[in-house]
């Protein structure tokens, strides 16, 4: 969620970051955070540490597991496939989610409630249930295949393919894109569009030059959520995909649960973690860079601005 | 007050940015939302280069009218002409109108210069010319040095100046303003009013300005259209409206008024109203005889004559009555205002009549005193008490 925050804050450089709290106040806040910190440490960070530890110790201390992973052509292919699948899912979600979020903002209150419910109901439904539902829909001689055949689009294989995985994952991850995008879009002042048209811009130009740039923070936040969630998806690819098209989480499962190669599993997890962090870091840095450029300009000139305002009032009064 | 805010380079700014204002004609213009009528068959004309203000309380239809001129709101019926050309079917971006919004509506992701350049880009103005025009427009509003900033880094007043520069940089023939100073504090509002007036003088563009602030309307406008309940009550110069209001609404909305309620009469000597057991005479009026009406006088046109209490009791009330329009009352309240004072005088039917005395001409009466109030018939008007739009709409100076 910190990612979302960073992305959305970047657009409003005029808004000052939260003020510094007094030391006692800060300890008070930390105390309130203690239960969740303990929980995160105990059930997330410690197991993560153990996993990483095993990557370099199990069965022998050293870099054996890592060299195996980097050296294995199949594993490299799987890693690449995982990232391209995540990318495709993100693009599909974006293509579906952007107009959807726009419709939510543009709709009247009743339609908006209906559209919101339509996004959230699947979101509240168990991941397992939804994945199985897709198995039924996409199966050979299933409803989707029938429909495509009836439409004269041939007899495409959907289940046990990468396409099927992308379809299922896109549907499941769509709310993660729609919700942040909707949140950002609903803060856009729609009078800006009126202003744009009064200034002579065609509606399409208004969209491209005003609406789209202002909605980009939502696009960034939502896409990142979808992309990163896609990287670690297990249930849906396992049910809808085939072992030939497996993603990293399936390989990881095989290593740990079937082959009992805890060390190799740990190494795979470590690589996924590092690559994901690297992508995040690059994105965050570029966002922070652009945000810093804005704030620097404002800090340097805010004093000047007030003095100019004062002199112009005097000038006008005279 | 003289308006002399010379900006460096304003002569060339005049050259680059001035435009001949267009005329705007509204004929029976109507906007209905379902069964509710927001604007009810109004007729109005803005002359080329004129500063026309649409004044009225909120919900009176003035903003809806402005939005119809801008093209943001569809016209239900009636005609809307700019330079005698019907525009009601043109989308906003084809009307070549400048618009300034109450909350500035500056593009937050563009710098000040980019904001001002935006309409020029839409018009495919070449880059060199574009830059020159942007610089001129920002200079005209006194912000030439802030072009590189983001709108959020400017104060409210500065943002509204940028909005103004953006709306005029392409020399539209009509500039619409929707309560542009509504979000600013009083001092800033006053200074920006003068600046808007100066810019109007420099540009020669037709300005249509929406406000609910009567002082702002008086300062800025060539003419004012007073809106009430989706209709125009009266159109005229500030002086027309203040000195010769044609409806009770205008009399009460613009400045302060003292009212005497009664029944209209018609005599050989002009209009009158039968109120407080006497006939009060007015120089003008258009109420029908026998119908409820009110006689309207501006508080500063009423004179106060203290009554010597003991003498009045002995001689009987009316013997001390001055000639002409005279009403007896008791001073209830006094408000000291420095250069003047206001008195609230209660008359026989319980009405509080407002009187304003200038500091150089005080009657010396105190709260509790019995007084005579007198006024000249030529300072008074008899206006129908029923809402004006049951009668034929009246207009002056058009």
Lay out the secondary structure.
The complex is a heterodimer of chains A (318) and B (398).
Chain A: H1 2-10, H2 23-57, H3 64-71, H4 73-106, H5 109-124, H6 127-138, H7 143-150, H8 162-185, H9 191-198, H10 203-231, H11 235-240, H12 248-258, H13 262-317
Helix pairs in contact in A: 1-10, 1-13, 2-13, 3-13, 4-5, 4-8, 4-10, 5-8, 8-10, 9-10, 12-13
Chain B: H1 10-17, E1 24-33, E2 36-46, E3 51-55, H2 62-70, E4 77-82, E5 85-86, E6 97-100, H3 112-122, H4 127-140, H5 156-168, E7 174-178, H6 186-203, E8 206-211, H7 214-220, E9 223-228, E10 231-236, H8 238-243, H9 248-253, E11 258-267, E12 270-275, E13 278-282, E14 284-285, E15 292-297, E16 303-306, H10 309-315, E17 325-336, E18 340-347, E19 352-358, E20 370-375, E21 380-384
Parallel strand pairs in B: 3-8, 3-9, 6-7, 7-8, 14-21
Antiparallel strand pairs in B: 1-2, 1-4, 4-5, 9-10, 11-12, 11-15, 12-13, 15-21, 16-20, 17-18, 17-20, 18-19
Helix pairs in contact in B: 1-4, 3-4, 3-5, 4-5
Organism (chain A): Planosporangium thailandense
Subcellular location (chain A): Cell membrane
Main location (chain A): membrane
Task: Explain the overall architecture.
The complex is a heterodimer of chains A (318) and B (398). By secondary structure, chain A is mainly alpha-helical. Chain A has a domain at 76-246: MetI-like (MetI-like fold). In chain A, 81% of the residues lie in helices and 0% in strands. Chain A contains 13 helices and no strands. Chain A starts with a helix and ends with a helix. In chain A, 30% of the residues are buried. By secondary structure, chain B is an alpha+beta fold. Chain B has two domains: 10-243, Rossmann fold (3-Layer(aba) Sandwich), CATH 3.40.50.300; 260-387, Nucleic acid-binding proteins (OB fold (Dihydrolipoamide Acetyltransferase, E2P)), CATH 2.40.50.140. Chain B has ten helices and 21 strands. In chain B, a hairpin with a 2-residue loop joins strand 9 (223-228) and strand 10 (231-236). In chain B, helix 1 crosses helix 4, helix 3 (112-122) runs parallel beside helix 5 (156-168) and helix 4 crosses helix 5 (156-168). Classes of the chains: A mainly alpha (318), B alpha+beta (398). The interface between A and B is large, with 37 and 47 residues.
């Amino acid at each position: 969620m910190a990612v979302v925050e960073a992305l959305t804050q970047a657009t409003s450089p005029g808004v000052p970051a939260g003020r510094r709290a007094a030391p006692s106040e800060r300890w008070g806040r930390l105390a309130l955070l203690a239960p969740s910190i303990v929980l995160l440490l105990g059930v997330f960070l410690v197991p993560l540490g153990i996993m990483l530890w095993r990557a370099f110790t199990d069965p022998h201390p050293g870099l054996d597991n890592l060299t195996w992973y980097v050296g294995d052509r199949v594993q490299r292919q799987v890693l690449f496939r995982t990232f391209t699948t995540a990318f495709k899912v993100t693009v599909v979600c974006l293509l579906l989610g952007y107009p959807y979020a726009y419709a939510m903002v543009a709709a009247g209150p009743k339609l908006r409630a209906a559209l919101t419910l339509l996004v959230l109901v699947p979101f509240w439904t168990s991941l397992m249930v939804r994945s199985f539902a897709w198995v039924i829909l996409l199966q050979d001689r299933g409803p989707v295949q029938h429909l495509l055949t009836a439409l004269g689009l041939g007899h495409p294989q959907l289940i046990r393919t990468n396409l099927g995985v992308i379809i299922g994952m896109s549907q499941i991850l769509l709310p993660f894109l729609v919700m942040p995008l909707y949140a950002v879009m609903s803060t856009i002042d729609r009078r800006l569009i009126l202003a744009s048209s009064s200034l002579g811009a065609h509606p399409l130009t208004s969209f491209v030059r005003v609406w789209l740039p202002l909605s980009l923070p939502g696009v960034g936040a939502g896409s990142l959520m979808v992309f990163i969630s896609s990287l670690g998806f297990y249930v849906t690819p396992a049910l809808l995909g085939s072992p030939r098209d497996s993603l990293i989480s399936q390989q990881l499962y095989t290593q740990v649960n079937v082959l009992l190669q805890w060390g190799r599993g740990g190494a795979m997890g470590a690589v996924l973690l590092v690559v994901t962090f690297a992508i995040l870091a690059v994105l965050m840095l570029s966002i922070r860079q652009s945000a810093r450029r804005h704030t620097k300009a404002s800090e340097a000139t805010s004093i000047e601005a007030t003095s100019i305002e004062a002199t112009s009032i005097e000038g006008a009064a005279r | 007050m003289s308006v002399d805010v010379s900006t460096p380079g304003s002569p060339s700014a005049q050259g680059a940015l001035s435009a001949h204002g267009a005329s705007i004609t509204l004929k029976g213009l109507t906007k209905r939302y379902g069964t509710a009528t927001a604007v009810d068959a109004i007729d109005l004309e803005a002359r080329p280069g004129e500063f026309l203000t649409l004044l009225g309380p909120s919900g009176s239809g003035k903003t809806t009218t402005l939005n119809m001129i801008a093209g943001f709101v569809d016209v239900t019926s009636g005609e809307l002409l700019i330079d005698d050309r019907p525009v009601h079917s043109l989308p906003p971006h084809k009307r070549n109108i400048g618009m300034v919004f109450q909350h500035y509506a500056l593009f937050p992701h563009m710098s000040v210069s980019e904001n001002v350049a935006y309409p020029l880009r839409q018009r495919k103005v070449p880059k060199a010319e574009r830059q020159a025009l942007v610089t001129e427009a920002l200079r005209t509003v006194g912000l030439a040095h802030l072009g590189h900033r983001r709108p959020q880094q400017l104060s409210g007043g500065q943002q509204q100046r940028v909005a103004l520069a953006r709306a005029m940089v392409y020399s539209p023939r009509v500039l619409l303003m929707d309560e542009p100073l509504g979000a600013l504090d009083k001092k800033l509002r006053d200074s920006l009013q003068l600046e808007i007036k100066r810019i109007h003088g420099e540009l020669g563009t037709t300005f249509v300005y929406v406000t609910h602030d009567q002082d702002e309307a008086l300062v800025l406008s060539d003419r004012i259209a007073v809106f009430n309940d989706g209709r125009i009550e009266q159109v005229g110069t500030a002086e027309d409206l203040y000195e010769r209001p044609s409806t009770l609404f205008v009399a009460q909305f613009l400045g302060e008024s003292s009212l005497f309620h009664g029944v209209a009469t018609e005599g050989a000597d002009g209009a009158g109203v039968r109120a407080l057991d006497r006939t009060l005479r007015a120089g003008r009026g258009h109420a029908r005889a026998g119908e409820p009406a009110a006689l309207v006088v501006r508080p500063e046109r009423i004179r106060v004559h203290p009554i010597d209490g003991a003498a009045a009791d002995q001689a009987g009330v009316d013997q001390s009555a001055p000639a002409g329009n005279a009403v007896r009352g008791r001073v209830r309240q006094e408000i000291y205002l420095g250069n003047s004072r206001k008195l609230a005088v209660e008359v026989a039917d319980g009405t509080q009549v407002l009187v304003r005395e200038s500091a150089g001409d005080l009657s010396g009466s105190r709260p509790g005193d019995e007084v005579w109030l007198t006024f000249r018939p030529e300072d008074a008007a008899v206006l129908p008490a029923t809402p004006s739009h049951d009668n034929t709409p009246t207009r002056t100076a058009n």
